[in-house]
């Protein structure tokens, strides 16, 4: 059933969350047929109407039974139990391509299904999903982390390309580090945005999120292109400015101070390891970074 490049396949999307509904629409655009999906929430039903019109919402077992390609787009915490549950009820069919979208797992999580002779592939799209048609426009900029046996790699890579992305091979043993990296990069970004927006609002600065959008997007682009080591080191070298920021945050936003201090310490550690911090300011900086809250005087 599986060739070097997937032919038109009947696809089941489990479930119609923000990721599954978008990837299902991308597979449809590539010529595959989404024959079933699952989901019970009002949000899932809205996404199906928008992104997968006409696709029936079915119980998971029934949806899997209709498919040649099963796309498991469920939260990390639910994936292992879902695979075990479908195995116990003999839902799998020999030759089915079973793809999951979790960043955390490779194909080992699909091991219970191997007795049914399925073809296991881990395929994580490295982007944030809103569950709207806008995501389809962003997929061409996304990289898909592909983990599978060498014999199945052409299928995994072809699926990534058909959905508009670019495949990147991640070995099974590297999957935990991959997951930690993407979580570290994006998992707490909303907290930083919220904290900065609240500080601006408290300072009676209007349009705080629009202000932050340009600032953060340009900073992110610079960091991704160049690393911006010079900018980070320059910020650390101005110990007086860092002290003032920490004192202000201690007074009006202690939770933000903790985040700011943690990032400053991480930046300092990387700069010191690279030999980029000048000795005269180093002692003063280290004293500041290790001082308890409210005790940051020179």
UniProtKB/TrEMBL annotation:
TM stretches of this protein: none
Cross-referenced Pfam families: DUF2520 (PF10728), Rossmann-like (PF10727)
Residues in coiled coil: none
Domain of life where this protein originates: Bacteria
Domain Putative oxidoreductase/dehydrogenase Rossmann-like: 4-125
Residue ranges of every copy of the DUF2520 domain listed in the record: 144-265
Protein name: Oxidoreductase
Organism field: Kineosphaera limosa NBRC 100340
């Amino acid at each position: 059933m599986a060739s070097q490049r997937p032919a038109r396949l009947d696809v089941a999307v489990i479930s119609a969350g923000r990721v599954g509904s978008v990837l299902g629409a991308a597979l449809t655009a590539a010529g595959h047929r989404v024959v079933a999906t699952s989901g019970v929430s009002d949000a899932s039903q809205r996404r199906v109407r928008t992104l997968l019109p006409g696709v029936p919402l079915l119980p998971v077992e029934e949806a899997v039974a209709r498919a040649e390609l099963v796309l498991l787009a469920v939260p990390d915490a639910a994936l292992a139990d879902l695979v075990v549950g479908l195995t116990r009820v003999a839902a799998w069919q020999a030759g089915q391509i079973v793809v999951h979208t979790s960043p955390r797992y490779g194909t080992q999580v699909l091991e219970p299904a191997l007795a049914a002779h399925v073809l296991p592939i881990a395929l994580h799209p490295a982007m944030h999903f809103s569950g709207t048609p806008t995501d389809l426009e962003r997929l061409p900029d996304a990289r898909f982390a592909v983990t599978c046996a060498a014999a199945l790699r052409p299928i995994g890579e072809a699926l990534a390309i058909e959905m508009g992305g670019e495949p990147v091979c991640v070995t099974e043993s590297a999957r935990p580090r991959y997951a930690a990296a993407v979580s570290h990069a994006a998992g707490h970004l909303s907290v930083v945005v919220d904290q900065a927006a609240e500080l601006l609002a408290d300072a009676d600065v209007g349009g705080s999120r629009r202000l932050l959008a340009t600032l953060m997007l340009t900073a992110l682009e610079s960091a991704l292109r160049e690393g911006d080591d010079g900018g980070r080191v320059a910020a650390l070298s101005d110990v007086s400015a860092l002290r003032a920021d920490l004192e202000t945050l201690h007074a009006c936003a202690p939770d933000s101070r903790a985040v700011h201090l943690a990032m400053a310490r991480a930046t300092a550690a990387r700069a010191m390891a690279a030999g980029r911090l000048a000795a005269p300011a180093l002692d003063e900086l280290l004293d500041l970074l290790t001082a308890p809250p409210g005790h940051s005087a020179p």
